[in-house]
Amino acid sequence: MHRVTNGMIAENTLRNISAAAARLAKANEAVASNMKIQLASDDTTVATRAVTYRSYVAQVEQYQDNADLASAWQKSTDSALSSLSEDITSLKELATAAASDTVTDEDRENYATDVQSYLQDIITIMNTDETGSYIFGGYSTGEEPYELVTTDIGDTVTFKGDYLSLGGVISSDMSDEDIVAFFTASTGEIYNSLSEAANDAYTAYTTAQTAADADSTDVILAAKAASALTTYNTISAAVTTYGGTANLTDAATSAESDYVTIKAAIATYGGTTTLSDAADDAQEITDTLTAAITTYSDSTTLTSAANSAYTAYETAQAAADADPTDTGLADTASAALATYNILSAAVTTYGSTATLSEAAEEATVTSDALVSAVTAYGGTTTLTDVAAAAKTTYQTLTSADNANAQSINYNVGFGSEVTVNIEGQDITGEGNSSIFNTIQKLLLALNGDTTYKTATMDSSGNVTVTTNSLDISDLIDELSTALSKVTKAQGTLGVRMNQLSSISDRLDDAYEAYSSLMTDNENIDTAAAATELTSAEYTYEAALAVGAKVISKSLIDYIA
């Protein structure tokens, strides 16, 4: 039988009071903080989950902040593109009105003033910024990308400090000598030039070759170096063909056009035909179609012209048959047959409803492309081989052009990025296709000019100044092309904005889900916690009451 002493009872009572007090303190702290645990050691499972859920919530919050910034950038871009579209539409309407025969000199002067205002407004639009970052400058967000500058040969627009079109549109009043001097002195200030692309390609090649030389056993490095050399050689050859000062985007477009033309020439002349023979045939077709315009008028369809040519051949042949001794009649019949054969073949090539003028224009393009190809690839090269080389050239130039893209991407999700910017040159155009060139031509036309000058430089550094005809009616189509670029940019932006909207919705759902998990894991059940606090209070009060009775007994009480 165990002996229970007064000390043992007192000790046990104090222990129960202490436990009840600790339970009450814990319950009270839980209700006050609304948290299940105060320290990780209170419940390691809850603590581990808390770290995970809080990390998820913090990530989602950062993604939401990024999405908000991206959305603000896109909205600024959308607003700017809308304003730009309105300005170009107004310019197109103005050009249409100015092309009328009833326009007076005073009208043209007023139109010119309006065009100057639109030019300034377009530059302002293209210098739009979002919280201090210029949205159309690519990676150069810290400075205005567009500027109207005055040069020795007239006003022009620069993009990020370089000329968008160095030899673009120059007043015919400017002397060739001044143009050549300015062009020669400024060749290093051309935006996205072919020479710059060639230099970049050479740098890439030397870097790859250095890496390959450092480890001669690595076949992958050797292959990369060989590929880089091929790229450099292709772009370097393009410099010879299109000129080093040519805009890279323009050169890529020209190269693609040349490839398409040569492919079409294969269908016409055969893949084994040499360039020289194809060029001669193309020139003959061009000459025949041009002569047919004089004979039948430029609006005559190929089918009608071919029928008329056949009738002329029959007449000539009948005359030759009537007098077989007259070689002149025989030659006339032979020439008439050749004309008919060419026109008949042209029906197949260009379509029966094509007019002589349209066919002659396309034939001239083909002839010019083949003549240029003779210079680039040699006259004895077959069309098939030239087509393969031309394809490589345009693909290489296009890849080089795409590699210059300066896309600004925002991380807006777990592995998700969205591009927020559209580069200015993709909207305004660059090189010969710049909207600013069109505006400059429009100003010259409104000033009464019927010609303008352009300048180009070949691979040897020789500058050629060309005088071009200027008709305000032609500018309407150019403005339509400029407007289509803006529309295309708006379409691209719209897709990205829809993508971002969907991502933002998913982020909101993810935030709600992770926040709910975090709350359920860390926060107390208020009703259960209140019940626990009440129970702990009763227990503590009971412990105190029992303790008061037990501990208050002394030895005197037991003696009595």
TrEMBL record:
Keywords: Bacterial flagellum, Cell projection, Cilium, Flagellum, Secreted. It comes from the Bacteria. Residues 7-140 form the Flagellin N-terminal domain. It comes from Sporomusa ovata. One of its GO terms (molecular function) is structural molecule activity. GO terms for cellular component: bacterial-type flagellum; extracellular region. This is Flagellin. Residues 478-558 form the Flagellin C-terminal domain.
